[in-house]
Amino acid sequence: MNQLVELWQSTGLYQIEADQFLMLVISGLLLYLAISKKFEPLLLLPIGFGGLLANIPGVDIAVGQGILAQFYAIGLQTTIFPLLIFLGVGAMTDFGPLLANPKTLLLGAAAQFGIFATVIGALLLSDLGLFEFSVRQAAAIGIIGGADGPTAIYVAGILAPELLGAIAVAAYSYMALVPLIQPPIMRALTTEKERRIEMTQLRAVSQREKILFPLVLLVLVGLVIPSAAPLLGMFCLGNLMKESGVVDRLSKTAQNALINIVTIMLGLAVGSKLVADQFLVPETLGIMALGIVAFSIGTASGVLMAKVMNAFSTNKVNPLIGAAGVSAVPMAARVANKLGIEANPHNFLLMHAMGPNVAGVIGSAVAAGVLIQIVG
Amino acid sequence: MNQLVELWQSTGLYQIEADQFLMLVISGLLLYLAISKKFEPLLLLPIGFGGLLANIPGVDIAVGQGILAQFYAIGLQTTIFPLLIFLGVGAMTDFGPLLANPKTLLLGAAAQFGIFATVIGALLLSDLGLFEFSVRQAAAIGIIGGADGPTAIYVAGILAPELLGAIAVAAYSYMALVPLIQPPIMRALTTEKERRIEMTQLRAVSQREKILFPLVLLVLVGLVIPSAAPLLGMFCLGNLMKESGVVDRLSKTAQNALINIVTIMLGLAVGSKLVADQFLVPETLGIMALGIVAFSIGTASGVLMAKVMNAFSTNKVNPLIGAAGVSAVPMAARVANKLGIEANPHNFLLMHAMGPNVAGVIGSAVAAGVLIQIVG
Amino acid sequence: MNQLVELWQSTGLYQIEADQFLMLVISGLLLYLAISKKFEPLLLLPIGFGGLLANIPGVDIAVGQGILAQFYAIGLQTTIFPLLIFLGVGAMTDFGPLLANPKTLLLGAAAQFGIFATVIGALLLSDLGLFEFSVRQAAAIGIIGGADGPTAIYVAGILAPELLGAIAVAAYSYMALVPLIQPPIMRALTTEKERRIEMTQLRAVSQREKILFPLVLLVLVGLVIPSAAPLLGMFCLGNLMKESGVVDRLSKTAQNALINIVTIMLGLAVGSKLVADQFLVPETLGIMALGIVAFSIGTASGVLMAKVMNAFSTNKVNPLIGAAGVSAVPMAARVANKLGIEANPHNFLLMHAMGPNVAGVIGSAVAAGVLIQIVG
Amino acid sequence: MSDLVLAGLNLALYGMGFVFVFLLLLVGLTILMSTLVRRFSPTIAVAQRQNSNGQKPGGARRSSSKVEAPSLDQDQGRLIAVVSAAIKQHRSGLD
Amino acid sequence: MSDLVLAGLNLALYGMGFVFVFLLLLVGLTILMSTLVRRFSPTIAVAQRQNSNGQKPGGARRSSSKVEAPSLDQDQGRLIAVVSAAIKQHRSGLD
Amino acid sequence: MSDLVLAGLNLALYGMGFVFVFLLLLVGLTILMSTLVRRFSPTIAVAQRQNSNGQKPGGARRSSSKVEAPSLDQDQGRLIAVVSAAIKQHRSGLD
Ligand code: NA
Ligand code: NA
Ligand code: NA
C-alpha cells in the first residue's frame, strides 16, 4: 500500500504546480503556432516541445543529467550549435543580389538601429524602475531586433543566459510575424509613388566574385571587429564551401544533415530554458514588448535609410526593400515584394530585396560583435 | 634484439588469453547471425564488430581512452544514444492503425506481463541460490521481455550497466528470433477457428488525430508516469515532427542521417561491454535463459488478452494480433499476418496487428518508467 | 572618447602582428590551392579557412573556449575524428582488385619504406644540429610518407601534437601533388619496355570473399599489431558494412553525412594548429622538405619492389603500379594508369593499380601501429 | 517465500497494474480526442485525408521559413533552370 | 538622465557608428573587388557565368579526390535524367 | 653514428620488417581464404557475382529489421506486393 502511495506521489498529477501548468499551456501555444500557423516551425516546434518536456514535474529532463540539460551544456554553453547553424545558413545564402548592388549593404546597416534603440529602451525601463535589466541583459534583449535567430541565441547565451528562453521565443515569434508587423510601418513611411519605383535589373555576377566575397568579408571582420569573427567566420565558411564548387558534398551536408541535426538539438536546448522559474518572470513580458519595438524600429530605419539614399543618388531604390534590411531571410524580402506588386503589378522587388536581406544578417552579426566587445 | 622480443610480446598472439579468444568467437557468431541470418543486422553487426575490437589484447579500445569506451561515455552513460534512436523510431512510426482501433492498446499492455514475470523469475533464481541478481538487475533483465532494443539499453544503462552487454545481445537476438519463438505459442493458445477470424477494415484516420495523439500521449505520461517521459517524450517528438508535416526536413534527418550515425556509435558502445570479464560470467547464461522466457510469456499474455477481450465484446479481434503486443516492430505484426493467412487465405492481419505492435512500444516504455521509478 | 579608443584597440588592425599576418597569407595560399588548383579541397579548404580564423587577432577562436579549440579537443585529442573518417573511407573502399591479385599487397608494403627512411632522415637532421626533432617527432614526420591524411593526423595527434598543423598540411599538399611528384621518379626507374607490360584481366571476386576479407584483416591486425587496431578496425568495420549488404543505410550514412560532418570539423580542428607560434618555426620547413623526400622514396621503393617481384615470377606486373603503393587513393592509381597509356595505348592499369593503392592504406596503418607501439 | 521474491511479486503487481491503468487511460483519452476531432472538424479531416492521398501533406504545409526555404526552392529552381536550358538548347538546334 | 541610460546612449552611438563604418568599408571593398575581378578576368567571368546557367558549376570544377567521388555521380545522373526527360517531352510535343 | 640515428635505423629496420611480415601473412591468409571460399561455395559465389552485376546486393540481402524496415524494405515489399497482385489479377483474368 505504501508503494501505491509512493507511486501516486511520484505522478505528475500529484506534483504539478500552477506555474508548471501555465508553462505547459505556453509551450502548447508555441506548438500550435508552429504547426497550425506555421510560425517558424523548424525552431518553434522543437522549442515548444522542449518546453513541454522541461515542465513535466517529477523528472529531471531540463536540469541535472536530463537530456535537454545535456544538449544545453553541449551546444549552447559552448556556442557550438548556433555557430553550426550559421555555417549551414551561409551555405544556403546567395550573395549574388548583394554583389550586383553593393550599396544595399547600407540598408542592412540602418535596420540594425532597431537593436540599439531597444538597448536604450530596456535601460530606460530599468531606470524607471519597471524592470531591473543590467547592461548585459539590455544588450541581449536588443539583439532581438536583429531578426536573426541564431545570432540572438548566440548573443543571449554569452551575455544573459538566464534570459535565453524568452529572447529566443521572442526572436522566432516576431520573425514569423514579419508579414504582420512590417506592412503597416512600410506603408506609413512611404508614398504610393515611392512604392511604385521600379528598379533596374541586376547585373550578372561572376562565380569569382562570389568566391572572393566571403573572404573579403572575413578579412574585414578580422581587421575591424574580431568579436564578430566566430559568427561571421562560420557564415563565410559555409558560403565559401557553396560558391567555390570544389567541396559540394561538404556544402550539401552543411545545408542538410548537419543543420537539421543541430536544429533539433538546439530547439530542445532552448526549450530547456522554458522552465517556470526562469520564464514566468516579469522580465519576460518586458522582453516580449521590447522585441516588437525592436522589429518595428528596425523596419522603419531601413525604409528611411532607403529614402535618404534616394535623396543623394539618381539611381533610385524602392524604399520598400529597406525593410528587408532587418534580416528575417527570406520572409522580409517577400513582404517587400508583395507590397511592391500591390503598388505596381510590374514591380518585382524580390531579388532586389534579397540584397538588403542578407546584408541584414551581416549587419546583425557585426552589431552582435560590437555588443559582445563592449559589454561582454 | 630486445626490441624484437618487445615487439613479439606486444603482439596479440603473445598476449591473448582463453577467455578473450572465446569472446572473439562469440562476437564472430554475432556477426555471422547478423550477416548470414540477417538477425537485426543494424544493431548486431556493429555490436558484434565492437565485441571483436573490445577483445583484441594489448590495446585499449573498449577501456580507458579507447574509442569504444568514449562512445560508451558519450552516448550510453548519458542516455543520449537510446533517446535519439527513440526520436528516429518515433519519426518512422505510424499510429494510424492504433488510432483506428484504440482498444488494441490493451493488447500492448497485456504483453508487458512478460517483463514482470521475468523480474519475478530472476529473483526466484537468486532465491534458489543459482544466481545473485539484485532487484535492480532483475528489473533490467525483465525489460528484455519488452522486445524493444533501445528501451532495454536505456533501462539497463540506468539500472544495471554491468549487465548491459548481455541484455542488449539477448534483446536483439530474441527480437530477430520472433518468427521462431512466437508461432508455436500462438498456435498452442488459439483454436483454428479463432485464427480464422477476419477483422473489419480500419477506418481512415485524419491528420489532425495523428498530430494530436503524440501530444495526448505525452501529457498522459507527464501526469501519470514522469520517469517514462524521456523515452516517450523523444518518441512523441519524432512522431509529431513526422505527422505535423511542417518540419519535413527535420523528420527526414531524424529518420536517416541522425538515427544511422547514432546506431553505428550505439552498436559500438554496446560492443564495448562484450569484454570477457563482464560477459563471460554465469549471469549471462541466466540472462539468455530468462530473456527467452520473457518473450514467450509476453507473447502468450498478449494472445490470452485478446481472447479475454473477445469474451466481453461482440466486435471480435483475431487473437493472433495479441502476440504483436510484445513490440518487435514490424516483425511481430508480420508473424501474426503470416499465421492468419495460413488459417484463412483471405485474412490480412498486418495492419490490424500494427496497432498492438506500436502499443507494445508504448507499453514497454511505460513499464520501463515504472521500473526506474520503483527500483531506480 | 575612451570607449572609441578602446574599440580601436580591440580591432584586428591595431592588434595584428607580423607573424599573424604571414599566417593569414599562408592560409590564403592553402585556400587558393584548394579552390583554384583543386588540391585535396575537401580537407585543405576547411584547414585553410581554419587557419584564417585561428590567426584573427583579438578573439579566441583556436584557443581557450573558441570553437576551433573545442573541435580540436572533441575530435583530435580523442582521436575520434580521424577514426570516423577511416570508417567512411572503409565504406568507400573496394578490395576487389586486391583480392583478385593479393600479391600486390607487397607493393603496398614496399612503398612504406618512404616512412621509415624519412624517420632516419629527420633524426639525421637533428644529429647534424639543423633541427631538434625527438624520436617521437621524427616518427610523426615520417608518417607523411604514408600518403594517407587521416593516418598522418591520427599518428601526429598521438606522437607530436605540436607538429600536427605542419604535418597535416604537408600530407594533404603532397597528396595533391602526386601527379607532379611521381611521374619523373617512375620514368627514371623503369624502361619503356617495362612500362609497356600489359597485365592479365583480373578475375571476378565473389561477395563472400569481400565480406570475409575485412574480418581476416582485423583478426591478423589483432594478433600481430594491436596498436594498429583502432585505425584498421574502423576501416574494416566500414568495409564490412558496405560489403555485407545488410546494413546499407548505415554504410551510406558513413560514406556521406557522417564523413562529411567529421571532415568539416576535422579540417577546422587542424586549422586551429596553424597559429603563428606553432607553425612559424624552423621545424615546419624541415617537415615540408622531409615530406617530399618521404613521398619520393615511397614511390621509388614501390616501383623497385615491382621489379624485384618480376625477377622472381613469370606472371609479370607492370612496375608502374608499384608507385600506387604509397596510398593517395585514387590519385596514385590514376597516375600509374596515365603513364601506362603513354607507353602503350592499350594498357589500362587503373584497376590493377587499385590493388597496391588500397594495400598502401593498409601498409601505412600497420606502419603507424608499429611507430606508436615502439616510440609511443 | 523470501523477501526478494516478495519484492518481485510486489513489483510485478504494481508495475502491471500501472501499465494497465496507463493504457486504459490512453484508450479513453484517444477515443475522446478522436471523437472531438471528428465532431468539430469533419470537413477539414476529410479534406486532409484526401490531401494525404493525393500528395504528401508536407508539400502543401511546407513552411516558408528561412532555414527551410533554400533547400527545396533552390532545388526546384535549379531543376527548372536545367529543364528550361535543355529545352532552349534543343529548340535552338531545331531552328 | 541616469548613468544607465547614458551607458545605453553611449552603446547605441558607438555601436551604430561601428556598424555603419563596417558596412561602408564593406561596400567599398566589394566594389573594389568586383572591379578588379571584372577588369582582370572578363572572359573567365563570362565563361563561368554561362557555365553556371548551362550546368552546375560544381560539375566542371569538381574535385576528383577520393572522398568526393561517390556523391556527385548521382546528382549528375539525376540532372541528365531530368534533361533527357525534358527533351523527350519536348520532342513528343513537336511530333 | 649517434645514438639518435642508431635509434632511427633500429626503428626503420624493425618497422619495415614488421610491415613486410604483416603483409606477407596477409597475402597468405587472403589466398587461403579465397581458395576455401571458391572451393566450398562455388555456385553461391557465382550466383552472388551475377547478382552483384545485375542489381545492388543490398537490395536482395536487405535486412527486415525494425529500424531499417520503414525506409526501404517496406517500399520494396510494397512494390513487390503490388506488382505480384497485378500479375496475379491479370493472369486470373486470362484463365
Ligand atoms: Na539583421
Ligand atoms: Na514492448
Ligand atoms: Na600508404
User: Shape of chain A from CA axes?
Assistant: globular
**Alpha-carbon Rg of chain A, integer:** 22 Å
**Low-pLDDT stretches of chain A:** none
* Rg of chain D computed from alpha carbons, rounded to a whole number of angstroms: 28 Å
**Sheet with most strands of chain A:** none
Task: Output the CATH topology of chain A.
Answer: Na+/H+ antiporter like fold
Strand content of chain D: under 5%
What does this structure look like?
- The complex is a heterohexamer, with three copies of chain A (about 375 residues) and three copies of chain D (about 100 residues).
- Chain A has a single domain (about 1-375), classed as Na+/H+ antiporter like fold (Up-down Bundle), CATH 1.20.1530.
- Chain A is about 75% helix and about 0% strand.
- Chain A is built from 21 helices and no strands.
- The radius of gyration of chain A is 22 Å and the shape is globular.
- The N and C termini of chain A lie far apart (about 55 Å).
- The relative contact order of chain A is 0.19.
- With about 100 residues, chain D is an all-alpha fold.
- Chain D has helices spanning about 5-40, 40-55, 55-60, 70-95.
- The relative contact order of chain D is 0.04.
- The model of chain D is unreliable at about 45-95 (pLDDT under 50).
- At the A-E interface, helix 8, helix 9, helix 10, helix 15 and helix 17 of A face helix 1, helix 2, helix 3 and helix 4 of E.
- Bound molecules: sodium ion (3 copies).
- The site of one sodium ion has 9 residues of chain B, from helix 20.
